[in-house]
Records
---
Amino acid sequence: MNEISNQYNSLQEALAGAERIFQIMDEIPETADAEDAVPLMQIRGDVQFKDVMFGYNTDKVVLNNISLDVKAGQKIALVGSTGAGKTTIINLLSRFYDIQSGQITIDGTEIKKIRRSSLRQSLAMVLQDTHLFTTTVMENIRYGRLEGTDEEVIAASILAGAHSFIQRLPKAYQTVIENDGGNLSQGQRQLLNIARATIARPSILILDEATSSIDTRTEQIIQKGIDQLMQGRTSFVIAHRLSTVHNADEIMVLEHGEIIERGTHEALLKQKGRYYDLYTGQFD
Amino acid sequence: MKKYFFFFRNYKQALLLAPGLVIIDVICEIVQPELMSKIVDNGVSQKSLIYILHTGGIMLALSIIAIAANIGNIYSSSRASVGFAAELRKGLFKKIQEFSFSNLDRLSSASLVTRLTNDVNILQDVIMMSLRLLIRAPLMLLFAVVIAVRINAGLASIIAVAIPVLAVCIYFILHRGLPFFEKVQQKLDKVNLVIQENLLNIRVVKSFVREDFEKKKFSLTNDELREISVRASGTVVLIMPVMQLVMNLSIVAIVWFGGNKIIAGTFQVGQLMSFITYITQILMSLMMLSMTIMSFSRARASSERILEVLNTTVDIIDSTEAKKNNLQVTQGKVEFEHVFFKYHANSSEYVLKDISFTVTPGE
């Protein structure tokens, strides 16, 4: 009896704990791949959005009627104020969320019919705030392609412009990154992320404010790496700093989830619309 | 230890009440077997119903007091330990707010989370346990030994053998098991770290399709935690069987020698009964004591981790001069004079070297 009454307490605690665990277990995970989902083979990188409509909640539309037609190898810039829906487009392309209506295709195949792993493997992202893992610099870069050799890691770092600072670290490539790269500067962390994207050899590259938190001088250094990386790849660039996007094949200006202007840098400037305002107002 | 008293400051009453009630409880309980033996030896053998009822009544009254004291003890020790834990968490959190970035880098956020939750809980449990057992067990032990010796000094010599044997066994088991408990906490930190980094980096994980890689990484750290936990409890789990063995052997010895004495007519059945009860109480108390010691030493690992946070000297603090002056910025002139800086004292390169500039107000 004594034992039972003692155990009763722990049982009560365990039940409360169990409930929280079941809550996680009952959560519905990402929808499984469709039965007929195919892997992507050697994709060229044509990307199409057709009348895409999306909202994170069903009651609030974030993207409305978005249509894009990107040819393989093109560089597309997405500009617009915060909350305009730039990052959402990227999220949809990676299929982090499913769209409510419309169609997104890569090389003509609807992304819902592509195996998610294969779709994401063909993309690489460099985000503004990418966190690092507690392991060596080498392994952090290799995260982009696990079977990459040490030489490939170093080659990728050279291309990304990260090599020289890595060599100045106490143990170079074997330096352990601790506490989310607290011992590195923002720019250095970003260089590692770019190296990580480089080694992944993606067909489609996504740069979401990749250089926004870097000073202009460092930006110049890594812009060279980024340009190298973009060679022959379809790339989506989201940037506040319009200086980094003026050489894009097409610039999309988004506002309130809609594309309000599109065209090349020169064409948009001539149009003297929103882009012109943005460009002349905040060019730095 | 001293540092911790501060966190009891609002729970002094409960902290003092708990052991006081334990003493009452022990006294009420310890006399029970002796009263019982008197009922057998005096009441039953002389067929005196009045004596049996009278003594039985005393036993009943004592039991009720004991129960009340015990409930009071549980209540006040819960209050003190839970209150202590809340105050300690508050103190730790406050300390963390004062931390500089290099303090945070050194302790790591994953580890701080474990320290504030899991480690504090371990301390809470051990305080609860000690308020209930730490005074009760030795007191019980002492009283029981005294009474056992009084009943029959010869038989009590069995205790003199049993206690050292048990004590030595427990010492060796704990000595082997304790280092593992420290490692358990470290591995728990690592598990937390992997989860934390995974969640922070989830977009990277998903975009590079590294879910399987992450799962493997997690199960590796998870397995490490499991293994070290199993090894830790694997060593201390021996305490209970060893204790049972010693206890049962002692009872066999008592029944053997005591039985012979009864046949010889120098010892009574009731006395033998109460003697067995006392020796059980003695060894039980010893076991409780050892379990408390065990959880104490487990908690030592946690305590060290908590004290490390509390004792970390915040490396950016106001100098006494700054505190005294209470200067206000009125104009906003900023000057850097030959500033050298590096993030870590042991870094070879300076991040800033000999920086000097002046910014006059309004610039």
Note: Chain A has two domains: 35-122+202-284, 131-201.
---
Amino acid sequence: MSERSVDDFRSRARAWLEQNAPRRGDGDNEPGGPGRADIAAQQAFQARLYDAGFAGITWPSEYGGQGLTNAEQIAFGEAARDFALPVGAFVIGLGMPGPTILELGTEEQKKRYLPKLLRGEEIWCQLFSEPSAGSDVASLTTTAARVKGDGEADGEWVLNGQKVWTSGAQYSDYGAVIARTDPTVPKHNGITMFIVDMHAPGVTVRPLKVATGATPFNEVFFDQVRLPADSVIGEVNDGWRAAVVMLRNERVAIGTMAAPRTSPLSYDSLSGLAARLGSGADPGLRRKLAELYVRERSVRLFGRLLREEAMAGRDPGPRGSVAKLAGAELGTFASLVAADVLGPAAAASDREDVREVLNAMLSAPGSSIAGGTNEIQRNIIGERVLGLPKDPGVDRSTPFNQLRVGTLRRVEGGKVGSDRRTGDGADT
Amino acid sequence: MALILNGDEEQFQQSVRRLVAERSPLPKLRELMSSGQPFDPEVWKQLSALGLTGLIIPAEHGGAEAGYSVLSVAFAELGAGLVASPLLADTLAAGAVARLGDDAALSRLLPGIASGELIATLAVGAQLGEPQLGEHSGTARADGDALTGEIAPVLNAAQADVLLIPAAAGDATALFEVAAGTPGLEVTPLPSLDHSRSLARVRLDGAPGRRLDGDAAAALGFAADLANLAVASEQLGGMGACLEMTTEYAKIRAAFGRPIGAFQGVKHRLANLRTSWELAHAALRDAARAADSRPADFPRAACVARIAVSASYVDAAVATVQLHGGIGFTWEHDAHLYQKNAISQHALFGGPGEQLDRLTSLLADAGA
């Protein structure tokens, strides 16, 4: 890879995007994700992206990829930042199950699933979090058991249980699901990852309404769902390793995502709103806005530093968690500043720009939870960046069927299923 | 230009790190505290020999013209080791003179600063930029060439051969050069919280000064940006040293049957500090690159870097004392040296409120 060929790739990408993709502008911050109606349009766009040679940039060519390096991938990402690519439905498949199949899947799985994913023909979701297993996703209770008895295909499995916080389940064709296949061993050792056909009998998808009132996620129920023997990703009972591969990909994806400047909680948006609402002259608020600018800019620069390191061949590794944590905390801080900007308008207002900010404030805690909570990120930074010792918990050595998991006592007043919806949203 | 260090910068970083470890380890600062000496002249010679005094001085005046990114790398290493030296004073004086562009002053002052033989200081007190009359840290006023007033605290004023005094001359601010020992100049060392930072009060009572040509307000503005870059670099280095020291201790100190670093109360605090450090580091790299290649961005970028690191360093230094437990609160332990440095640095050359106000007006100027 020479610097020149990367530059050429970047200019080709930019030229193609100018011709084919809509520019990022106000009004593209749809919090709910794509609706079913524009899925066909997204599939058509992904197919054109594929034909132009910008899908699967780092994936091997035998599975439909371009066989290029991280440098080209990053170059494309930078070129694409100013555009609103209508490919939301594929972000999960390409970012998580895809790379995992690439790393751990069989030759047949790679040939069967990856090209169709890249061409936009099939959409994927990821099914990890459960009502009783969020941060501690390894304590999941969805089960997959081998089918016994006569007349059944050898090694077929049957899947039962519930997943939660699943993005895109309502329009996905396939999902990567982890399920318990041996409850008699410690929790990390009895999990297997499967490919599940989301159209199979026994799969039910229900929208999940969140704190803002929107329904950007789903609950997915499995009732006696048959899984063929060749749907196992990696080895039986070695699914935790596959899950770790997938979560690592997720964290890097979330952490290095540059927040669009048009976000209602950005410095630009909030200082503009402060001017319109007349709160911009207050010296205390001006200082807070300046501090927001510093934090926002630092987070963005750190993302750039990580990308530069990756281009120079240095693996950012667990420092992706620094980006994830910093991004979430930026949202928390920005919400506090936003409350000051709004003043009494926070309580009641018929202004559209105020309501947008309020919606973003209500959404902000979500980014401290999804993709691994702030607490989990701090553990990762402490243990894997700083090298501090792990907390010697009992959960690593006790057989799963003797562990306490989930919510131990029903909380009074927690009517919305305090024992059901405690997942941390690791499936984004 | 890339934020990450290039090969030359990494090599230079290693050289400065080695020099600090060999010539000025922390016991050196304790020696100076006992003897009352502001810095070790031998260490100063070594720093000059490595070229630190000439990094931003043009070759025609005896410097290396190595640039601000390298300068930032050097200051970070000195900050990590709490090395006492007049380098910051010299750097700000050299930066102001260079921006002023008074040819005679350039030839008179820069070669000596570049070689380390001349110690110069810019008498700006604790504030940023052009002094405002009537402010607490004081200003001077010029009646012809005779200077009167009081400025404090001034970096290395008691060791300086030359003081550059900003003074109100009629409607404008001008810079005056005053040699040490000039009649009417009185320099009184102040007890510094942080011994690595030698500070003094400067009183002028009709002291004659040599008025320098050029735009003094622009020169002082640039010196303020340079101070932000240099101090933020030192602060980032100091913060990194605190984190490293405390993280290592958390791995080896056991309580309740396990290393204290296994407890989330300790682990998460260190993870938060590491996160702040990473963000400040990225902001600092951007400021250093801006100084070299995007001068119009430099004031804003330097201010961002300074705000990103300044309060976080204080946090880290306090956490260093506290997470070490009892041993961290003893005189023998080095934690208090960093705490003093962090508090002092946070206050000098524009405290937190002043920095935020400066950034606000820079952003307003940019039409942001």
Note: Chain B has a mean pLDDT of 94.
